[in-house]
Design a protein that fits this description.
Blueprint lengths: L10 H11 L10 H4 L11 E3 L1 H12 L4 H4 L3 E3 L16 E7 L4 E7 L3 E7 L1 E7 L2 E6 L3 E4 L5 E4 L6 E7 L1 H6 L5 E3 L13 H6 L19 E2 L1 H12 L10 E4 L14 E7 L9 E2 L3 E7 L2 E5 L2 E5 L4 E4 L5 E5 L3 E7 L1 H6 L5 E2 L4
Bound molecules: 2,5-dihydroxybenzoic acid (GTQ).
Length: 349
């Protein structure tokens, strides 16, 4: 539709627009080209954050405010194309959260779904619906919508993870609810390891009836993810665009693990030159292992472990690992697929 130029202004038309604006009416033909674009036109821009730099600021924040006072001590990854909007993509929020030894991030619940991707530390916990899980580097942890959750750190080192939430999506739908729990920490009602035993062994209790939209497994440990990728690499053909890429699934139905956020882990072997790829789901990447470069819409980011970068919708990306590399990523692909919107372009691959 960009072939269709905006209608020319004439004194009669301008007067007419002014008159109808007073009655809260507007002419479509003045804005149609910006509303229904021939392809995605996003304010989201490609960007890269160096982990060590962000971590230093986060630790500095640790000296300024407690997790309890802040409720959540998080530095938001703000997309430079949308400053002040608390968005990393148009539909997703991301941040870096710190829980220091001895601290508790108090229990609350909200309509928004959250994922935690663990970057630093060992053995702090998050509690979801009465069950605690210990967090280790590379683990992918889910907080389902409207589930009570608190985070605590009884280890002796700072715990840092990447938060991914569907905050912009929920606010788009004006569907946000939130409340504080009366206690800082919810009661522990189920044993550690209960949910992986029930739902994470490729089995389910015989009378299990799925409830809620998120996976009943709320921690997908990195040890198992990494082992799966390592075992597969000997056998599998590399996808020209993705290397070896897996998606996290909900055992209830084989769909994505979360209702609004799709999550992935991919292995790119040393020497692999990925073919250019683009899709309509803007994607947030966190490097788990290795180093390399990604070129996004002509900008090259050089990354190493724990660095974060974002690829906007419909921008070409190519990944070039300098050594074996493992990348975690998340996007709104699950929502776009449900709505019949998702598209990809594999270029020449
Ligand atoms: O841990 O519950 O980064 O509620 C933003 C909002 C984390 C959380 C965030 C939240 C949380």
């Amino acid at each position: 539709m960009d072939e269709h130029p905006p209608a020319a202004e004439t004194p009669e038309r301008t007067a007419f627009y002014k008159k109808i604006a007073e009655r809260n009416l507007a002419p479509l033909w003045s804005v149609l080209g910006d509303l229904v674009t021939p392809e995605p036109k996003s304010p989201c821009v490609p960007h890269y954050w160096n982990y060590e730099e962000a971590k230093a600021f986060l630790l500095e924040a640790g000296g300024l405010i407690s997790a309890k006072e802040a409720e959540r001590r998080v530095l938001i990854f703000e997309n430079p194309g949308m400053p002040g909007e608390s968005k990393i993509t148009t539909s997703l929020y991301a941040g870096l959260q710190l829980v220091l030894p001895g601290e508790v991030a108090p229990a609350h619940r909200h309509s928004q779904s959250a994922l935690r991707f663990v970057l630093d530390g060992s053995g702090a916990h998050t509690a979801v619906d009465g069950e605690r899980t210990l967090m280790e580097v590379g683990d992918f942890v889910i907080t389902p919508p409207w589930a009570w959750h608190d985070h605590g750190n009884t280890s002796d080192e700072p715990m840092i993870w990447l938060d991914g939430l569907d905050i912009p999506m929920v606010s788009f739908y004006d569907a946000s609810f939130a409340e504080m729990h009366p206690n800082d920490e919810q009661d522990v009602t189920r044993k550690h390891g209960d949910s992986p035993a029930r739902y994470g062994a490729n089995m389910a209790p015989i009378d299990h009836r799925p409830s809620g939209a998120a996976s009943p497994i709320f921690n997908y440990p990195y040890t198992r993810t990494r082992e799966a990728l390592e075992t597969m690499r000997a056998q599998d053909e590399w996808d020209p665009c993705h290397g070896l890429k897996m998606r996290y699934i909900n055992p209830n139905d084989g769909g994505y693990a979360m209702p609004t956020i799709a999550t992935f882990m991919q292995l790119l072997p040393k020497g692999f030159a990925a073919a250019a790829y683009r899709s309509t789901d803007a994607c947030v990447y966190a490097v788990v292992e290795g180093s390399g470069q990604s070129t996004v819409d002509g900008q090259t980011f050089t990354w190493g472990p724990k660095d974060v970068f974002v690829v906007p919708s419909w921008k070409w990306v190519t990944h070039t690992p300098a050594e074996d590399a493992v990348l975690f990523s998340f996007s709104d692909r699950v929502a776009q697929e449900k709505l019949g919107l998702w598209r990809e372009d594999r270029g020449n691959a």
